[in-house]
Amino acid sequence: MNYTESLAYLDGLSVFGVRLGLARIRRLLELLGNPQDRYRTIHVTGTNGKGSVSAMLARVLQQSSIHAGLYISPHLVSYTERMQVDGQPISEADFAESMTVVRVFIEQMMAEGEECPTQFEALTAAAFYYFAKKNVEYAVIEVGLGGLLDSTNVITPEVSIITNVTLEHAKLCGGTLAGVAHHKAGIIKDGVPVVTAAKSTTLDIIRETAAAHNADIFVEGEDFSVTGGDISPRGQQFFFSSMLVGVSRDSYELHLLGAHQVENAGLVIMAAYLLHNIDSRIDEATMREALRLTEWPGRFEVLEVPAVGEADDQIVVVDGAHNPAGMKTLRRGLDDYFPTAPRVLLLGILHDKAVDDMLNILVRPDDIVVVTPPQSDRAETLPVLEEKAEAVCHHVEAVADNGAALERALVLAGGERLLVAAGSLYLIGGLRQLILGKAGKEVRHGQKASETGSEK
What we know:
The chain has helices at residues 3-13, 23-31, 50-63, 92-111, 119-133, 177-185, 200-212, 259-276, 284-293, 324-337, 355-362, 382-390, 402-413, 425-439, and strands spanning 40-45, 68-71, 83-85, 88-89, 138-142, 159-162, 194-196, 217-219, 225-232, 235-242, 247-254, 301-305, 314-318, 343-347, 368-371, 395-398, 418-422. By secondary structure, the chain is of the alpha/beta class.
């Protein structure tokens, strides 16, 4: 298969939807020779922040001169973003070759009367195969959904990281917050240390699971801590402390913005100190430089474009917040970095999300809101989203075309208001490409996110 044919094949697998379980992926990997066992791994789950943590950890490894892979989901623009080695996305040719190899064994499974793997299982197998082919030393693996029954949960990592736990995907993960916590804790393996920022009841469940697996647990706020320092739209300072590793108050610079990224960086530093115990190439200097350099597109990303009108430039914040917890984080970031700025919000949300809660958290009565549908069959309809937005602010406009919606939002902002694009990863990926084009920056073209294994 070529790249286009491999995408068409993946689209065909999407009809199987989300089917949690490990039997199919284990069989598929067995046929591939269990490539996931040929390198060390770090496993990352959590409701929010797992992508940022994964990106920072991969950068730490790269900065430490370690040949490292990174597997993430979703992608913003192209499937090639999901599999990276040393910071570079997989080429379209290598993606197609990996999917071709995986397809051979999927067809063998089906010929033997076994269940067909899902799209996400095929992608996961392809990533594990690709990393083995590239002879990586380590791979940072981000969970797709939950943890316990997620396709990635076939690895035995050096460190497990659970960022946080809030009530999302409850229908697939036990129906309650406790059920979600059990699924997140499902990545914990015998004797493998766990680093977490979980709180309260969810932390209790993670502790119990860690104890059952004789796994040491390191809790943010107890075993290590982070505090924020100076902030600006260009970056921020923070301090890391942990008596366990002999650090009283080390200062770090972080390119990523938002107090939540300080918490995420704390998880990364603690995990990196644990990894230092098995690989001395990872040290405080490489951690420091990695965090200063890490970029993570579409997560409280501040961009500038030429303004419509007489203003010199227009500030645009692009953020992938697509659940209530994400909206709380976005709102906090906006209040911290742009506390007095009037705002135009360009929003699109999926209908199976907590739309009312998300709007109530983010939108202020004096905000101007432009609603537009994400590029997904699950998009909330414009009339419904417009009506819900009108319940929380006075000025709402609905524009069906995403590009036209961006143009309208830029006119309404006029360089005088902050423009914020958020609500769905299906929306911001395409919008970000358009914004980068207006800013005169490099635009990476690719395929839009597919339903399965993207924004869950």
